[in-house]
Prior knowledge:
Blueprint: E1 8-10, H1 14-25, H2 28-33, E2 36-41, E3 44-50, H3 64-81, E4 84-95, E5 104-114, E6 117-126, E7 131-144
Parallel strand pairs: 1-2
Antiparallel strand pairs: 2-3, 3-5, 4-7, 5-6, 6-7
Amino acid sequence: MLLFREPENKGLHPRLFGTLVNVNEDCPFQNFLDIYVVALGEKYALMETPLEGDHMDHEGNVHCGVVNSLAETAMSMAVRTANHKGRLKELKMAMVDTTKFGETLRAESTVDEIGEDILVQVSISTVKGRKIATGTGVYSILGEFLPPAKDGLF
């Protein structure tokens, strides 16, 4: 069930913002899970996925793999909003609740620290505000995500 809405740009350069939205839209795995961008800002990503039958475990609860995938997707996107290409080294998730078919999960992620590695936080909740999980990720820096344009501008 695709719930399309125009992603919100919260201050990113339009070229970076457009590239990030396209990367999300062109990713087969994110399309499979129906993960989409709600908003992007500097060191910030807000993403959602509506829960359908394929997202559920045998008991009818959201599968933890869906929660982890949404979390990692939002964290990776937050890393890219800082114009870094990164590779996940470590993911720690704490599940605090579960949810059922028909809900929409929201992942809000922020980059906390950029040094030798990048430290990222994520919070997963329903769109109604019920917390489902929290997590942290550590990313290796692989380089720039988007090189400068030929005119020297971002």
